[in-house]
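Database export, one record per block. Field names are fixed; values are copied verbatim from the stored entry.
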Amino acid sequence: MSAVEVSAKDVKALRERTSAGMMDCKKALTEAEGDMDKAVEILRLKQGKKIQDLGERTATEGTVQAYIHAGARVGVLIEVDCNTDFVANNDDFVGFARDVALQIAATPTVKYVSRDDVPADVRDAEARIYEQEAADKPENVRERILTGKLDSWYETIVLLEQEMHNPKFDGKTVQQLRDELTATTGENVVIRRFARFAVGQ
């Protein structure tokens, strides 16, 4: 039987649920033939106490943070959720929400939390533009060009793929910081939603 195609979305979901590494999640999902619960079991057998099944614990606690830029012309509201009120009140957790709110304020192009939130019609319209741009290139490189351009586009509109502007983060993305916070708190850290307000926009 051929190996099951494991989607990036499933790998991401398993990682969020267990805090295991991306490659470990991919291997476990392949071994489990795409069955999420079985993959969690495989990870727990292989990695023992390091793996927690966060999927059983819904992110129902959290914080709403606001950032208003100097001059009061740009403002951001963000909701970041976790599993317990203990972590919701933790300085690192609140600090993460504030840092991400500042990132959003400084990035007018960001519109979605993750790739999964980008509507298919918006993505397809963008892909058609890149397909036209690559039409005169050899067929064997067109797909690579399209993927590369879409990835670059996602980086401008998807929050989790944003590189943090603040130099103290050494070029880490919002996703990397979120993963680190998930690992240190042992909780499911979820950026639920955000809104950016700018005067005249």
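Remark 1: The mean pLDDT is 86.
Remark 2: Strands lie at 61-68, 74-82, 190-198.
End of record.
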